[in-house]
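Before we proceed, please read the two lines closing this message. Report back on whether the structure tokens fit the sequence:
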Amino acid sequence: MDDKLMLMIPGPTPVPEQVLLAMAKHPIGHRSADFGKIMAEVTANLKWLHQTQNDVLILTASGTGVMEAGIINFLSPGDRVLVGSNGKFGERWAEVTDAYGLNTERITAEWGKPLDPEQFRLALEADVDKQIKAVVITHSETSTGVINDLETINRHVKAHGKALIIVDTVTSLGATNVPVDAWGLDVVASGSQKGYMIPPGLGFVAVGAKAWEAYKTAKLPRYYLDLGKYRKDAAKNTTPFTPPINLFFALQAALRMMQAEGLEAIFARHHRLLAATRAAVQAMAMPLLAADECASPAITAVMPSGVDAEQIRSVMKKRFDIVLAGGQDHLKGKIFRIGHLGFVSDRDVLTAIAALEATLQELGHEGFTSGAGVAAAAKVFASH
């Protein structure tokens, strides 16, 4: 049946009808007063979402683009940086720092396990000459469904005194609490197609005072990604380059929806969806990749035994028009990932779990009672 596709992946995520309708408007001039009003509104609402008084800049870019911008605007060739790598995206940021000739030191953990804050503490305390200029962290590691302990790692960075913390919050911002000012986060990057509930194409980067001070002496090359240009123009409610105007219409509508729901309600919904999904998967006798204490509210990674992960994804798509994400790199074919961030409700999770049960029965997966997954998810919803 046409138009029944259901995205249960970590991005792009489902888009609300009112956001889609907002995008359908005729474009307006990006140098017009009308666009300036939209720019002013979305900038204010982005600061609300980030819980910050700092600049929150809007780029026409993916999450990778704004993370690259967040790295190159504040560093110089040869600078020493610590990069946390416990999945596909943590490793990507290390590849970016390598590409720009930075002195990259990886702090790693096994995929599916969280980064150890103690390793950061030891490395930062050993840096008596204050050579470490930045620590780059992925908050929610999308490839594995692990959330890293950003608050503790950031505390160790703050104790160092010199280093900036540069954070990938691509699948955590808008899904869990990221209090930028309360934690004193220096650079925070995210993308539109995740918790923001709009299609891909916009990237956001919050920049604090300490980072702007570093910007003054940073010497890595930049032009389109020069955040100074965006800051200067944002002060006048405009952009340095042509933006995707209709995505700004979408952003305006989505942020209004988020404000109507409220931050605490948004976070509670995501954590409820996480708990229900994990309970359902365990009731269906399938192991989870990440432990409860480090599970991301954005996505749940499942390691099925006795049934092929790609077969599960194939049947879910062909029979039920539900898209699940696969594993990446060495986890390809070994896991599948259920996204539950952005415009996702309790009903969506129940639907996906019911379809997953039917899929497992079709593929001959044994060891669970029919309906156990739905019952486990429903029990979580009843108690939250």
Q: What stands out?
A: The radius of gyration is 21 Å. The first helix runs from residue 17 to 23.
